[in-house]
Structures are given as C-alpha cells and as structure tokens.
Specification:
Layout (H helix, E strand, L loop, with lengths): L3 E5 L3 H12 L3 E6 L10 E4 L1 H10 L2 H6 L2 E3 L1 E5 L5 E6 H8 L3 E5 H10 L6 E3 L3 E5 L31 E5 L2 E5 L1 E4 L6 H6 L7 E11 L10 E5 L4 E6 L5 E8 L9 H9 L6 H6 L7 E7 L8 E2 L2 E3 L2 H4 L8 H18 L3 H29 L6 H10 L5 H12 L22
Parallel strand pairs: 1-2, 1-12, 2-8, 5-14, 12-19
Antiparallel strand pairs: 3-7, 4-7, 5-6, 9-10, 10-11, 13-16, 13-17, 14-15, 15-16, 18-19
C-alpha cells in the first residue's frame, strides 16, 4: 500500500517517520513549526533498540559514525563513591551495541539530510485537522506544500483523506502523523478528553562544554537527594552534561550556571570541571513533562500519534528518542504490509502502545527509586543496597528495554526522477 502522508513535527520522531514512510514508497511532507529547526537538547544517548531502528531507516551507519560509545561509567554518590558500575562491553556483547552519545543537533542534521529538501517545510504550523469532511472537488494547496504528483492537480481527496489546516493553507493526505511533541496540539484536537501532559515537578538544565574535557569514563550519573547530575562524552572530546532538579514549572534563574555551581560545586569531580568548561549562555533549561495518563489509543481515524505526542516519558531510562524511533519503523512496516490504512493503523496501535507505555511506566518508577528520592532514610537505604546488587540482574533490567527486533522495511524502487541514493 502506498499513499500520501503529512508528518506534523520535524523532531527526531517526525523525521524518522518520514524516512520510514518514504522507504516503503509513500509521498511525505514534514511540517515543522519553528522558523529555524529546533535542535535544543544538547546531546542524546541512543541504546541498541534505537540504533536498530535507525538501521532500518537507512541512517544507522551515519549516526554510529557521528556517535561515541559509552563503555565505562556508572552511577555515583555526590562524594564520588560508586553505587553501580556500567560495563558497556558486556552490554554490547548481549545486544550487539553499547549505548552511544551524539549531539542532538548532529542527529537532527543527519536525519534531515536523508530527506529531499523539498519534503521538509520550515515555519509551517498545523492548526486544524478534519477527518469528517473530505473536501471533495476542492483544489489542493499550490506550491511546495503540495502532496502528490502535480502542483496544480486537485487533491485526491476521496472519502479516506484527511484535511489539515496549516498556517500557509490547506493540505490533504491519506495519513497524518502527529509527531508534534509533548505539548501536541493535534493530540488535544483528536483526544480532547485526555488530560494531556503534566509537569513532573522537575526541570533539566544541560549544556555541551565549549572545549574537550579529560574524563575517566564516557558516561556517569550522580544521585543526590532529589537531584541528579550526569554527563556523556562526545566524539570530539567535549562533554554533554545535565542536571535534574526539583523545581516548580516556570522557574528560571537569572544566572543558571551560577545556580548550578552553588548546588553542585561541592560534588565530586569532574562535575565542577564540567561546569567551569561551559559558557554561561550555553545552558538550556526545560521543565519536564510526561503523559502520566496513558493514551487510550495511538491512532484516531487516519492519524497516528508518534513519539512524545503519544508517550512522553521521564528521561530516567534514556528511552524517549529510542521509543520514537521504534514507532517510526513500526508504522512504516504496518502501512507497507497491510491491505488498507485502517488495518495498518490498528496493527501499529496494537504493537506500539503496550511496549511504549510499559517503558514509560518503568522510566517513571526508575526516577522515583533513583534520583527522585529525597528523604534521608530512603536515600541511605538506596545507597546501601545498590552496591550490593549483583551485576547479572542489573544487566537484565537494562536489556529488558534495549532488546528489540525491528520489522524489516522492504525498500521500494525509486520513483521516476528520483535517485536510488535518496532512499538509501
């Protein structure tokens, strides 16, 4: 089955969805509301399941080349004593890949580069969505947003097409992918009874150092009372660090770096060194939100919700982007293998919703039992118990989320006028 798709959202999930759908022969237009692509987020870790998804999308080799493997590290106390060690080599032997770190801007660039430039429309917002009125006989939007073979041909808007009202006109598609993030506008339109994303009561501040930093390992987390500081190493020797703090939503600091020095300056090295290697204007501050109430469905009519729009989760397992990548591959495989779109979307929902929501629950629980603990007695029990845990169960707990076999995306022949490398 082939058709036309509009993907709302040009983040990791939306770009991945576009790659997957194009790989199985669909015409895809991506709408990104930002005038400048938003690559905020400093850096990201990708586990084996995310890398396997990228392999199916044709971007795995490029992403691996731009990443740095996380082989040595673990979790510490603020005084530097180890709570748990991470053996990246053992993880690689078990699942075929270590966790890798990559700058988010570089990951976005690689995903965008794999798409034809004309398929990504910047500065275009999706405002409305109409599945009840197919708009028969209405002319399609002329110009670069046109779906289908001709700029001035009427939309093929039979009873199954969706009409998307955009900031620059109207577009029609057989399938719409809502990949517009944790605050998804489309999710609110499609599922108005759902409470939407809620604040977790924490915020994350993060940055990339402006120079290489000499570090003993590639990955560390440090858990204090209700707070976390972590870092990963990037291929050029710079480090991305993040600090998670319990903060009311909307809290902002006049000097974020000074605030972090006051809170973490007494923690073990290299934390003070990482802060010292960071320019004050490089610090990003985001309130953390999640879909605490699971969605009843990941599909509504001919719309599929994907990534944070479908299952925004806390960051404590590092699985948010990986689950979005799984979504993208699963959706593409479903539409490629089903006789019609309703069957494909039913398959996508049945496969993705149980797994993604289970990972979201596990991430929430990991946060509560790890850096979310603030009572001194609870922290003392955690700090005593963690070093006594044998490595086997710890590794199996990680593997539970990293093990995933993607469906195979059979590449379709290039369309007329299209080079084979655009689908590679």
């Amino acid at each position: 089955m082939r058709g036309t798709a509009v993907v709302v959202g040009g983040g990791i999930g939306g770009l991945a969805a576009a790659l997957g759908l194009r790989r199985v022969g669909w015409d895809v237009t991506v709408l990104e509301r930002s005038e400048v692509p938003d690559d905020a987020g400093a850096a990201i870790s990708l586990a084996a399941n995310g890398l396997r998804a990228l392999d199916e999308l044709g971007a795995g080799e490029a992403v691996r080349a731009a990443s740095h493997g996380q082989y040595r590290g673990g979790t510490r106390r603020p005084d530097g004593r180890w709570l748990a060690r991470m053996d990246g080599a053992a993880l690689e032997r078990a699942v075929g890949s270590p966790i890798v770190g990559i700058a988010r801007a570089e990951l976005h660039r690689l995903l965008r580069a794999a798409l034809p430039a004309e398929s990504l429309l910047i500065g275009v917002r999706a405002l409305t969505i109409d599945q009840d009125r197919p708009g028969q006989n209405e002319p399609a939007q002329d110009g670069p947003g046109q779906n289908g073979p001709g700029q001035n041909e009427p939309a093929q808007d039979g009873p199954g097409q969706v009409r998307v009202g955009c900031s620059d006109g109207t577009r029609y598609a057989d399938l719409v992918v809502a990949a517009d993030g944790v605050g998804s506008r489309l999710r609110g339109l499609l599922l108005p009874e759902h409470p939407g994303a809620v604040a977790t009561g924490a915020a994350v501040l993060r940055a990339i150092t402006d120079q290489p930093v000499a570090l003993d390992g590639e990955f560390e987390l440090t858990w204090g009372r209700g707070a976390e500081f972590g870092h990963i190493v990037l291929p050029d020797g710079r480090a991305e660090w993040h600090a998670v703090l319990p903060l009311p939503p909307g809290t902002r600091f006049a000097d974020p770096l000074a605030e972090l020095r006051s809170r973490f300056g007494g923690w073990h090295e290299p934390i003070p060194e990482l802060l010292a290697a960071t320019p004050p204007d490089a610090v990003l501050h985001h309130d953390l939100r999640e879909l605490r109430t699971p969605l009843p469905t990941f599909t509504v009519g001919r719309v599929a919700l994907l990534g944070d729009a479908a299952h925004a989760m806390t960051p404590h397992l590092g699985q948010g982007a990986c689950q979005a990548l799984e979504d993208a591959v699963t959706l593409a495989a479903a539409v490629a293998g089903a006789p019609d779109l309703p069957s494909a979307l039913s398959r996508y929902d049945a496969v993705r919703r149980p797994r993604a929501q289970a990972v979201a629950r596990a991430a929430r629980q990991a946060g509560r039992m790890g850096p979310g603990l603030s009572h001194p007695l609870a922290v003392a029990v955690r700090n005593t118990a963690m070093p006594l845990m044998p490595p086997g169960p710890t590794l199996r707990a990680i593997l539970r989320h990293h093990v995933w076999e993607p469906p195979t995306l059979d590449r379709t022949p290039p369309r007329p006028g299209e080079s084979a490398t655009q689908l590679a």
